[in-house]
Amino acid sequence: MSLIQETDFGTPKSKSETMVTLTIDGNQITVPEGTSIMRAAMEAGTQIPKLCATDMVDAFGSCRLCLVEIEGRAGTPASCTTPAMNGLVVHTQSDRLKKLRKGVMELYISDHPLDCLTCAANGDCELQDMAGAVGLRDVRYGYEGENHVFAKAHGCENDNWMPKDESNPYFTYDPSKCIVCSRCVRACEEVQGTFALTISGRGFDSRVSPGMNESFLGSECVSCGACVQACPTATLTEKSVIEIGQPEHSVVTTCAYCGVGCAFKAEMRGEEVVRMVPWKDGKANRGHSCVKGRFAWGYTTHKERILKPMIRERIEDPWQEVSWNEAFNFAAAKFKGIQQKYGRDAVGGITSSRCTNEETYLVQKLIRGGFGNNNVDTCARVCHSPTGYGLSQTFGTSAGTQDFDSVEDTDVVLIIGANPASAHPVFASRLKKRLRQGAKLIVVDPRRTEMVESPHVKALHLPLMPGTNVAVLTALAHVIVTEGLVDEAFVRERCDWSEFEDWAAFVADPKHSPEATAIMTGVDPKALREAARIYATGGNGAIYYGLGVTEHSQGSTTVIAIANLAMVTGNIGRPGVGVNPLRGQNNVQGSCDMGSFPHELPGYRHIAGDAVREQFEAMWNVKLNNEPGLRIPNMFDAAIEGTFMGLYVQGEDILQSDPNTKHVVAALSAMECVIVHDLFLNETANYAHVFLPGSTFLEKDGTFTNAERRIQRVRKVMTPLNGYADWEVTIMLGKAMGFEMNYSHPSEIMDEIAALTPTFAGVSYARLDELGSVQWPCNEKAPEGTPVMHIGGFVRGKGKFIITEYIATDERTGPRYPLLLTTGRILSQYNVGAQTRRTENVVWHAEDRLEIHPHDAEQRGVRNGDWVRLASRAGETTLRAEITDRVAPGVVYTTFHHPDTQANVITTDFSDWATNCPEYKVTAVQISPSNGPSDWQKAYDEQARHSRRIAPVVEAAE
Amino acid sequence: MSSSPDKLVYMANQIGKFFHSQGRDRAVQGISEHIWKFWDPRMRKQIFAHLDAGGAGLDPDVLDALQKLKQQA
Predict the structure, then answer these.
(1) Of A516, A550, A581, which closes a domain?
(2) In chain A, which stretches have pLDDT less than 70?
(3) Would you call B21 and A803 a contact, using CB atoms and an 8 Å cutoff?
(4) What is the largest CA-CA distance in chain A?
(5) How far away is chain B from the Cα of A589, in angstroms, using its nearest Cα?
(6) Can you tell me the ipTM of this complex?
(7) In a domain, A782, yes or no
(8) Which of A628, A677, A601 is nearest to A306 (CA)?
(9) Same domain, A761 and A613
(10) How far is CA B63 from CA A628, A913, B30, B33, B73, in A?
(11) CATH value at residue A115
């Protein structure tokens, strides 16, 4: 193994299809029009010296090192800013060029510390490389002149010198090493889109400045790492590199945080991760990253990780560390006992959307084949299950229709109930880039999210009341239909015309007009009409949506309404358009694909279908139950009722993430055996009897499938600290229960998946290694996968319009609970925070806060930062208030990353009509000033601390 | 929504409300199909038991759909 060296072509790739031919150093080269001479030379293998150019950002032409000579042209143009043209004859090396470059380097080096041996960039410094490339041997100017290098000059303070900024937990900024190439500034603008950095001052006073000469941490910087990656010197350097040194080998793998699925190079020294660097060939992220994937991997070696299996008879007992075998036998005996006593259907399991496809597949196989029932579900139940239902009803398949590259061809972006800047940041950066190029943005969200207003982006915002999505979307459809904006040719060709007519008559009813529904939705009818017109007529229209759509009583109806909108405007079946659910977790798409739902086998095929089930029975050599099993909320109800008594939970913290915590506590407490298979003693483990230590994404092989249906490899870079990868643990647990599964490597599991699942038929590890990644369906018809779905026709045949009647949720405000609470995520934390809370990311978000409008706050005597009591019909908690007009009057908002807040104590049992996806996004609440933690929080904390005790190991007497 | 039949009745009516706008025949078909596809047998058994006990609280479309489903079972 060696360090993967990615070629830096100096300037971005041109998308032109017109080709031009030029001669560089005597060689003819043909490149797309718009390619720089620098890039053309690099494609032919000639590296022209450069400092300010890098192919992640546009050419800038400031360093004057990449000069070339062009026959027939005067002077020495910069090759980064000079486009290749037909017939050019270019020379990259001449006496004049050598002299000029050496002169430029002399100036750079005269103001640069010469501590190369002890510098963190030693071995990875472009300045050093260029000094070598131009043959710099001497600096005629000396080092004593005016400089930015030394704190003191000639015995006095050097006003030009600035100390290191170490405020960011993950990287340092050392201004004394800066060459002001502005690559960091441009990366922040062009790649990330945050515009946190600038060059302040002019000439010799030019400095890289976060915000208005603030610290990195104090500025708008979101710590995505793009600047660090772009820096050619040690000016911006990962603290881990400073501490450990340069990596010696690297392995390409996939991030284990959100559904964007960024590809990273894990840069290693032995089995120690030195840094994670986004991989430019990663098709989801194209070389970009966010603070989580890039930096927040410290949890993998956190001291709180549990590395030994543990068991206990009762949850009141302390944990006993035992051998793996003892743990498996204990668990197997408990589960068998439960099945004997309460029946075969009294146990089940939850697959993890954080684990690999292979691991998820094995857990559902164990449940269906080993437990003999279909009581398997996954966290998608509580996030995107309505997407599965809604899109399969209308289009015929449940997945998103596009790849992320599609956004580059989009003219109008409609974001509904999603905040990609926080939850899918790398996609948000790609989206913002397109918006800065002129695409229009409409945001439907109760809150003024970071997407609504960001540098050079101003969205048309429809701030609706939580719970009125269907009314708003139907009103959009009303405008499209009644104003004659329907793409009739598309609808006639691709959709069922009579269903369309029924639907069109329904939405055209004046009671669905923006004016008539405004009283419920709170949305300005004029703005809504404008949004409808822009989406229907503005060119390629793409819808991106998130949990603000699905996590409602009418989640599935909203997804259907979205599909209707895309069909009626013909925005389906080509690049730039589509319906794109932004998936929450790294492998939530995969866990759904792998048959994690109780009614479906892998590949979304109903368990009652004899032909498909028989294939699985033959392969697994076991008879399968043909009845759908329990969904997560149904499991809880059945547990309280006494018919569901054992649960195996892999990589999911249901106690913290599921709604109505008290109900979940009651259900878990009622069960006789809960097996938690996780990295940490999470909240669910407080009610568990068996703890099986889990492994991280760095410790195993497998695949994740991201929100674009892209299957990407996860590669093992270190030995599991706990001893076994999760797939191995599931196999051993199965064996203890008498269900044999034999695989020596996850690739064999994928082969079985491919053999049983038509949409995965062409997937294998060899194929993934060859192509880098592949989007399902991948089979004979599409051997390289399917970036865009429904081209030329829908998967189900004709697109199906379905009527979407708005039905208000039964969670209503009233005198006791007059405000509506909605919930969401923040950039630096991930989901229940089990991982990110165990990293330095807590500096950005150490606690959940309640956002409340100044009007509502004043009425209640709440000041910024005050502790407030947040109460709903389900429960109450306390947290601190943040007064902001991002939320409308009547609406409050919080995140759910911290167990000591337990935002889900507040959320209720209401759920989506079709899938039982909980209604997290609407809870009627009241706010009042508070002195501190609620009784519930105190009791919860007490129970958690009691439950987490681990008994000391008693040494056996000799 | 404390006891189980109440919750199942609520869930079934929720399904019914979605299909209601499609007209009675399609609604009855849609509701019964949905419950058959997504409810585990113990949930169906409980709602059938409730149906046999008079089906209090069930909306008319839902009542018909469950009767239809029960006959097929």
Answers:
(1) A581
(2) 954-958
(3) yes
(4) 92
(5) 20
(6) 0.93
(7) no
(8) A677
(9) yes
(10) 22, 17, 13, 13, 15
(11) 3.10.20.740
Give me the torsion for CA of A812, A816, A817, A818, rounded to 10°: 90
In this prediction, residues B8-33 reach a mean pLDDT of 94
Which residues of chain B make contact with A641, given a CB cutoff of 8 A?
4
In a domain, A490, yes or no: yes
Given a contact cutoff of 8 angstroms between Cβ atoms, the answer to whether B31 and B19 are in contact is yes
Residues A297 and A359 both lie in one domain:
no
Distance CA A848, CA A856 (A): 19
Regarding whether A111 and A96 lie in a shared domain, the answer is yes
Residue type, A468: T
Q: Is A26 left (phi over 0), alpha (psi -120 to 50) or beta?
A: left
- Residue linked to tokens 């009542």: B63
Q: Residues of chain A whose C-beta is under 8 A from some C-beta in B?
A: 345, 374-375, 506, 553-554, 556-557, 598-599, 606, 608, 627-631, 634, 637-638, 641, 643, 802-803, 805, 807, 909, 913-916
Q: Which residue of chain B comes nearest to A608, CA vs CA?
A: B37
CATH code for position A347: 3.40.50.740
Question: What is the number of CB-based contacts under 8 A between chain A and chain B?
Answer: 56
A809 belongs to a structural domain: no
Q: Which residues of A touch B38 (CB under 8 A)?
A: 599, 628, 631, 914-915
Q: Does A953 fall in a domain?
A: no
User: Which amino acid, residue A148?
Assistant: H
Residue where a domain terminates, one of A67, A102, A133: A133
Are A558 and A599 members of one domain?
no
Task: Output the pLDDT for position B40.
Answer: 92
- Based on the fold, state whether residues A546 and A414 are members of the same structural domain: yes
User: Quick check: B2 pLDDT over 70?
Assistant: no
Residue A67 · residue A78 · CB < 8 Å: yes
Res. B45: pLDDT tops 80: yes
Nearest by CB: A345 against B15, B22, B42: B42
Output the CA torsion A479→A485→A491→A497 (10° steps): 60
A881: nearest Cα among A890, A869, A897? A869
**Tens-place pLDDT, residues A824-882:** 888 888 878 888 889 998 898 888 899 999 999 999 999 999 999 999 998 889 999 99
The confidence score (pLDDT) of residue A531 equals: 97
Identify whether residues A482 and A577 lie together within a single domain. Answer: yes
Interchain CB contact of B72 with A (< 8 Å)? no
Q: Does B3 touch chain A (CB under 8 A)?
A: no
Q: Does B40 touch chain A (CB under 8 A)?
A: yes
Q: Domain range holding A96? A: 19-133
pLDDT digits (tens, 9 = 90+) for A946-957: 999 998 876 666
DSSP state of A283: T
Q: Which residue in chain B has the smallest CA separation from A639?
A: B4
> Could you say which DSSP state residue A414 is in?
E
Contact A434, A418 (CB under 8 A): no
Q: For the domain that residue A847 is a member of, what is the CATH number?
A: 2.40.40.20
Same domain assignment for residues A577 and A435: yes
The angle formed by the CA atoms of residues B5, B7 and B10, to the nearest 5 degrees, is 110
Chain position carrying tokens 């490389």: A129
**How many domains does chain A divide into?**
5
Can you give the pLDDT at residue A524? 97
CA distance A127 to A165: 21
Give the domain ranges of chain B.
Answer: 4-72
A601, A737: one domain: yes
CA A799 from chain centre, in angstroms, equals 30
